[in-house]
Design a protein that fits this description.
Layout (H helix, E strand, L loop, with lengths): L1 H14 L9 H8 L4 E2 L1 E6 L5 E6 L2 E5 L4 E7 L5 H6 L2 E6 L5 H8 L12 E2 L5 E2 L5 E13 L2 E13 L6 E3 L2 E3 L6
Antiparallel strand pairs: 1-11, 2-3, 2-6, 4-5, 5-10, 6-9, 7-8, 9-10, 11-12
């Protein structure tokens, strides 16, 4: 009985495909905005030596053993070729007092690092010294997914400090507050 039920379910999936444009893109984005995320700046040094940095809130842990993380970048982003070619990247988790850095790295500039103090990390990636947490990663692989690329990295070195994280939710910056 279970096998025939499974076959019927599989057959119904074939007969009733989901329409390609079932969701309104604006409504989808608004719904995603209800999920609060941290804010990061991902940095690398491209193969030609150019430093790249981009504000990202699509960052997540993947595995503790081995230590893997992922983040996503719009495939059409100007910095995408550098990140795709890089062997290393760093994820700088921003504190609540660093929202100005988030806006800076989200805005196109000829050289985003011209007025930003950094130190040099693994693979010569620029590191933001005041980040709340920092993950230095060897690039493991990239995966095309819709209009974005998923970057998977193995964490090789990390640092963190105490402080309030910068949070992004419903289109605005905020900070977490404890529940009573």
């Amino acid at each position: 009985m279970a096998a025939s039920a499974a076959n019927a379910l599989a057959a119904s999936r074939v007969r009733n495909p989901i329409p390609e444009r079932l969701l309104d893109a604006v409504d989808f984005r608004r719904a995603l905005g209800r999920f609060a995320t941290g804010v990061t700046i991902v940095t690398t040094r491209g193969p030609a030596g150019r430093t790249e940095g981009v504000t990202v809130n699509s960052f997540s842990s993947v595995s503790l053993d081995p230590p893997l993380v992922l983040w996503c970048l719009q495939s059409a982003a100007p910095s995408a070729p550098s990140f795709l070619a890089a062997d290393w990247f760093a994820i700088n988790v921003l504190g609540a007092d660093q929202h100005h850095l988030s806006r800076h790295f989200a805005t196109p500039h000829p050289d985003k690092f011209a007025a930003i103090a950094t130190t040099s990390g693994l693979g010569d990636c620029p590191l933001l010294p005041s980040a709340l947490a920092r993950f230095e990663c060897r690039a493991e692989r990239s995966i095309e997914a819709g209009d974005h690329t998923i970057f998977l990295g193995r964490v090789v070195r990390l640092e963190h400090r105490e402080g309030e994280p910068l949070v992004f939710s419903a289109g605005r910056f905020c900070v977490p507050s404890p529940l009573t």
